[in-house]
Amino acid sequence: MRTVMRKPVLAGILGMLGGVFLGAGAASADVTSDRAAAILVWPKLVFSSADDDVLSASGDVIDTTIQLTNTSNEEVRLRCFYVNANSHCSNEPTRVCGNHADCNLSVQGGLCQPGWIEIDFEINLTPYQPLVWNLSNGMPNLPCTDAPCAPPGTSELYENVGNIPPANEDPFMGELKCIQVGENNEPIDRNQVKGEATIVTIRPSGEQTVDARGYNAVGIQAIEGAVDGDNTLRIGEEYKGCPNVLIVDHFFDDAVEPISGDSVKSHVTLVPCSQDFELQAPFPTTFQMLVYNEFEQRFSASRSVTCFQEFELCSLGTGRDRPFNAPGWDDPNHQSCQRSVFSAYVSGTLTGQTRIRGVDDGDEEHGNGLIAVVEEFHRSDDGDLSTTVSSAAFNSHWVGVRETPDIMRLP
User: Fold this and answer.
1) Distance CA 67, CA 48 (A)
2) What is the pTM of this model?
3) Distance CA 199, CA 183 (A)
4) How many angstroms separate the CA atoms of 222 and 161, rounded?
5) Does residue 34 belong to any structural domain of this protein?
6) Is residue 19 one of the residues assigned to a domain?
7) Of the candidates 65, 80, 67, 83, which has an alpha carbon nearest to the alpha carbon of residue 134?
């Protein structure tokens, strides 16, 4: 059964502000969320069972449904990489944590230390084949593995190869990247795959409540004749470039949505375009933000991201990271969020536009492009902390291309 999801109220493009924040000579960004590509990026995947007390502290069950489609009449081969971005306790290395307090429950003196682990797999898709799987279970047997399949209108038989592993931890927070390759696993200049993701939350209320939010995988298209087939992918030379500026249109946190009267919060998940899967070495990226309210008043802030980071919007202006995969209405430190430039109390308007730009660190080995997905949460503002939260997810917009190519290294 298909779940009908509420679309975010603000997902349209606001007018660009006279080239501010773009850099000289910037052209249109080349990544895409509505066309087939050679590299697919799902910026946010999450799994959390009811037993998890880090991401689903309220007993929610959270999982991600991932869709992947071959849009061509040819077989397609992919090399894929989950990135597990969980943090772990220094005193209990197998314990996933959101903050230092999570590491001092049974053994005192622990620190919550960030870490990034790559889990790779390889699969092929038969002509026009769609696949769907849950992050929690993976897909140990692809549909045409045991018995070859014939696509409609042809008698030729095709067979799937490979399998898709499940999340390697509970909870799991991270991303997925897939690269189209040839028979010998060399990257090729084909743009034939697309993808989507839906994050589903099941809440243990008196009557079970399901909430779902979905977004399109971000596609990076190969440039015909430019891909040299080695394991160092140059995004901006062999592949079309990552955007120079991400544009996020949003409600300011704690704004009251004018139709329903809901209180609104937003989360932004950022992942870098540059990634080293061979050495599993992260590329830290500092990013700057310009924030405009409805009166065209401008605020600014800066933060950094390493490999993967989800930010509650107001935390971008306070330096306080929200450790959970849920908006922070019930956070005892929420008052500090109300002093953020992303708070409706500070901005003075309901909505705003935030422009995010990765700062070039001058390293010729990699660029500092970023990819984002945005989530919007609505809650009835009646003071009842058990009120069901509804949500939506959407892709950011983007403009400009990076002067320095981003680098993706494969094992």
Assistant:
1) 19
2) 0.88
3) 33
4) 24
5) no
6) no
7) 65
